[in-house]
Amino acid sequence: MEHLASVPVGVYALTTRSITVTVEPEFLDDQSDPEDHRYVWAYHVRIENQGPQTVQLKSRYWHITDEMGKVQEVSGAGVIGEQPFLSSGQSFEYTSGTPLSTPSGIMRGHYVMEDETGTVFEATIPAFSLDCPYQRRLLN
């Protein structure tokens, strides 16, 4: 079961099986070059275990779509070279980034988690928007 958490604007959170994943994206102006079609974002992730069992983050999967509909999929073991264990009440935070060739896009994904009984499950990463602050907005 998943549910959205109440968070500030620009922060995205979702809870799956007592694992809350919170993401805060940030446009990196100093690493972006719009004339060269290069737009870069950092995203800060917090993974919090609100359940009674210890869990381990085994792998990640990202689905990244730019504003033209081009999809990039990224998967692999752990995050930033780690496969952290989270006891009840513990959290793990990290920052990573992604470049796009368009001024906006969206990311979503999941973490594969394993609890202390060996049960494997996916903790959903909420979909979050990547929007260049200089992009002209069109209202629909």
Instruction: Please give the domain count.
Output: 1
Order of helices and strands: EEEEEEEEEE
* Distance separating the two termini: 32 Å
In total, how many beta strands?
A: 10
Helical residues, percent: under 10%
Shape: elongated
Protein traits:
140 residues; mainly beta; Immunoglobulin-like; 5-stranded antiparallel β-sheet; ApaG_sf; Uncharacterised_ApaG; Protein ApaG; ApaG_domain
Short description:
The chain is mainly beta and 140 residues long. The protein is built from no helices and ten strands. It has strands at 2-4, 12-16, 19-27, 39-49, 55-66, 71-77, 85-86, 91-100, 104-115, 120-131.
Task: Summarize the helices and strands and which ones pair or pack.
Elements: E1 2-4, E2 12-16, E3 19-27, E4 39-49, E5 55-66, E6 71-77, E7 85-86, E8 91-100, E9 104-115, E10 120-131
